[in-house]
Every structure is written in structure tokens, then in C-alpha cells.
Amino acid sequence: MLDGMYGKGSKQEKTKEINSVHQIIVYEVNNHITETYIRSNASRTILRLVRALDFVAAFMERLKKEPNIAFRDVVQQSYEEKLAPFHSWPARKAVGVATYTLPSRNDFLMTIGAKEDVLNEGGSYDVLVGDLQLVCDISFKYFTEYDLQNLP
To answer: How far apart are CA 88 and CA 31, in angstroms?
Structure first.
């Protein structure tokens, strides 16, 4: 799975050794890989991906729960809640400007091949949002457990 990423050992040993997000975090913490700013590490990348996934889950939930607010505001509020705390001032301002270029809610739904009633039916949409949030919650638990929630 992560062949060649962590130095010595056969391909088979590495695959056996590291095959989950939790094992990646444990390996990197035990080998002090997360303590340096010079080295890139999988934990930092995974944390960023989980934060992005958390944003997507919040966006999808807000899109369903708040059908009467502007699409731009749905995106902006989700961004401010989930990602803005980790971004610099210039990045936050750039995102704010970029939200003015977003399509309308209906145009967005049409682009992704969905209709408003898909959001209101529940079912698979709600399951997807729940599953996304579950993945984020479990992942954030690991990052908190190993005090890695503030990796740069």
C-alpha cells in the first residue's frame, strides 16, 4: 500500500506493517516523522484531506437543511466553519472572492446531475453525509489522540 514510503524493508513487510490511517499515524509518531517541518509526511496530508472531507460533509448537510439561502452563502458558511480556521488571511480572502463566481443552487445541482428532490428524499444522500462525517470523526479522533490536530 505505501511501498517505498518509509525506507528499509521488503515490499511485503511494508504492506503488512502499514495498512490503515491509524497505523500510518502511529508509525510516524513513533518514528518522530511528524515532529519536523522539513520532512513531508502522510499524517499531515491525511489531516488536510480529512479537513476537506469535513468541509464537503458540512456543505452537503447545509445544502439540504438551508434550501432558501444563496448557494454562495452555503459554501461560504461551510468554509468558515470547517476550513477557514486553518488558512491564512490572504487565503480566506481569496476564498471569499472566489465564492462570488459560484453558480446558483439550481445550476450547481444540474451540473452534478441532481435535483432538489434528491436532497429532500433523504435516503442515500443522508447516508452519504452520515458516512462522510463518520470517517471525519474517526480520523479526527486519531489526530487528537496523538496530538496532531495542529500539523502545519
So the answer is: 29
Closest-CA residue to 25 (of 126, 139, 104)? 139
Question: Given this model, what pLDDT does residue 15 score?
Answer: 46
Among all chains, which residue has been given the C-alpha cell 520532512?
Answer: 39
Q: pLDDT tens for residues 57-69?
A: 999 999 989 989 9
Q: Do 67 and 53 contact (CB within 8 A), yes or no?
A: no
Question: Any alpha helices (H) in 3-152, and if so which ranges?
Answer: 11-17, 21-30, 42-65, 71-82, 89-98, 105-111, 116-121, 124-145
Show me where the domains of the chain are located: 11-145
Q: Which three cell numbers stand for residue 18?
A: 502499514
Question: Does 11-145 carry CATH code 1.10.3520.10?
Answer: yes
Low-confidence residues of the chain, pLDDT below 70?
1-16, 37-39, 122
pTM, entire model: 0.83
pLDDT at residue 39 in the model: 65
CA distances from 34 to 16, 18, 50, 113 (A): 21, 16, 17, 41
CA distance 61 to 74: 10
